[in-house]
Design brief:
By secondary structure, the chain is an alpha/beta fold. It is built from nine helices and 14 strands.
């Protein structure tokens, strides 16, 4: 009779995180080779049997996103045709999550398209972290576990932010107000909001602060930092309004374009990101960057899913 053990497969997007998850689970990564033919087609070879096994494929939406997404789809399909009992896509950062609604005429809802592609490829279950919009879970017909980085963020603030009891939690935009108020309530701190006016996407023209940050440690919280223009301007706005220092804590640190220069030249004391997206090379160029390791949360979600236990415990508790 089959023991139906856990098999962890890693794509090329974030092998370091996959190794950390496997180590936490006391197992090794399965032998998978992902290469490209000379015409840039992706070729996947799974080097060991996954028949009747519980397979988890770790692939984050970062770097060369389209290539990595195609890799994931091919790996899911390869495992399904190799008779895996269940295939779970573990997407620490969900690709195309920001394209989740029709915000202008003829705009595609690409997050729904990605959900359809994963389902058609054969994914039985999806584990992800801090979706840009929780409604993306509804794009799938299979179960989706949307884990939260919030418990890990709370622990980081308590352990690493000096004088955190004199802090104020700040949301850099109206969309993140719910996340910021939740953290502020847990820590019993005040909350402030920055209203930003955009001229076009990715470019902020003016910021207005709502709340009193004078002589307080301002902690900006957001789900994603891409070019970091918002964080840089928010830090300046907060310091201009009398904040003693400014920290930024972000779940997905995309850090594209001139993000590192913006951080280095900004008034931010520290920018804290989780390792849902690899940034080891970026840390060498930016001493202000710090990391929260979320491999324990993902590993525990995998263990609980495999054993048929409840995952909801992880929504409010940080895993050590």
């Amino acid at each position: 009779m089959s023991s139906n053990s856990i098999r962890i497969l890693a794509g090329n997007s974030h092998p370091a995180l996959a190794k950390l998850i496997a180590k936490r689970l006391g197992t090794e990564l399965a032998n998978v080779t992902v290469t490209k033919y000379s015409n840039q087609e992706t070729a996947v070879t799974i080097g060991e049997s996954v028949r009747d096994e519980d397979v988890y494929i770790v692939q984050s939406g970062c770097g060369e996103i389209n290539d990595h997404l195609m890799e994931l789809l091919i790996m899911i399909n390869a495992c399904k045709t190799a008779s895996a009992r269940r295939v779970t896509a573990v997407l620490p950062c969900f690709p195309y999550a920001r394209q989740d609604k029709k915000d202008k005429s003829r705009a595609p809802i690409s997050a729904k398209l990605v959900a359809n592609m994963l389902s058609v490829a054969g994914a039985d279950h999806v584990i992800t972290m801090d979706l840009h919009a929780s409604q993306i879970q509804g794009f799938f017909d299979c179960p989706v576990d949307n884990l939260y980085g919030e418990p890990s963020v709370l622990r980081y603030i308590r352990e690493n932010v000096p004088d955190w009891k004199n802090a104020i939690i700040v949301s850099p935009d109206a969309g993140g107000a719910k996340r910021a108020t939740s953290i502020a309530d847990y820590l019993d701190l005040d909350f402030a909001l920055i209203h930003k006016e955009r001229k076009k996407a990715n470019e902020v023209s003016r910021m207005v602060l709502v709340g009193d940050v004078k002589d307080k440690v301002a902690i900006l919280v957001d789900d994603m930092a891409d070019t970091c223009g918002t964080l840089g301007l928010a830090a300046k706005t907060l310091m201009d309004n009398g904040a003693s220092s400014v920290y930024a804590i972000v779940i997905h640190g995309v850090l594209s374009g001139k993000a590192l220069d913006v951080i280095n030249n900004s008034m931010l004391t520290r920018v804290v990101v989780t390792n849902t997206i690899p940034h080891a090379e970026k840390k060498k160029k930016c001493p202000k960057l710090d990391t929260i390791d979320v491999s324990a949360v993902l590993a525990e979600a995998i263990r609980r899913t495999h054993n048929g236990e409840s995952v909801s415990y992880l929504f409010g508790h940080a895993t050590i």
